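re: ur question from earlier - yeah i can do the single chain one, its not a big deal. heres the input i used so u can compare w yours
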Amino acid sequence: MNFKTLALHFKFTRQQRTGIFLLFLIIVMLQLVYFFVDFNLDEKNFQEENKWTSLQSEIDSLKLAKYNERPHVYKFNPNFISDYKGYKLGMSTQEIDRLFAFRKENKYVNSAEEFQHITGVSDSLLNVISPLFKFPEWIQKKNNFKVDKKEFVQKTDFKKEKIVILDINQATQEDLIKIYGVGEALSLRILKQKEILGYFVSMEQMNDVWGLSPEVIAELKTHFKVILPVNLKKIAINDASLKELSQFPYFRYALAKQIVTARSMDGNFENIEDLAKIKGFPVEKAKIISLYLEF
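and the output i got, formated as tokens:
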């Protein structure tokens, strides 16, 4: 083939060359669009939408299950009803006050009928709340008597259960869980508090354990008491270093520093009253703190 003849096929006018260049540019642009534009975007959006829809459906079903779930009702000892508890049960202020006055005499109601007699609640309210009452086991095991021609016939033999009072400093988790209202979590908190302090010096320290209600504390005081260890090691307040004082749970570092400063400037402390004069000293716990100190 003659190359000159072949070259004649590649001779173009200026307008033709411009058209070919534009055509080539359009082809290149279409190729770039094909490679860089994601044509599956709608499909991805649809998948994401399905995922969120299914998640929302699951959330809605959980909300509906929680809404339809009946709240668990716990039984309680009516002797230890608080103002708020009585209000929630539907008792009037006067009825709650009558129960408090009865309890101040160190007396206890032992049945739903006695509760109604003391408080004066209506029959309708008693029928609603009495199934929630839970009395101690020894009350439930009381002898049942019936009257027949003025003679009492004993149905069952009953011996009153004697309450054994234990040392709170020697109590185990099993001992604490036996108390009504004390579960695994609260028993561990009591033991943790004893570990922090080293030992308890007063049952009033139960008030410092988070989560213990007044009713549970009263039960603990019934079954436990404080017996101080024989080898009790107290803190020598007039000789202890700043480090030793700051490690005492009832003192903060700032208070320990003030104690050391006051001791060096004014001399030794004679009693807890001298110590309580320091600014920031927890005066309300002075009696308990004094049992840990040696003057």
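The first helix runs from residue 3 to 8. not sure if urs matches, ping me
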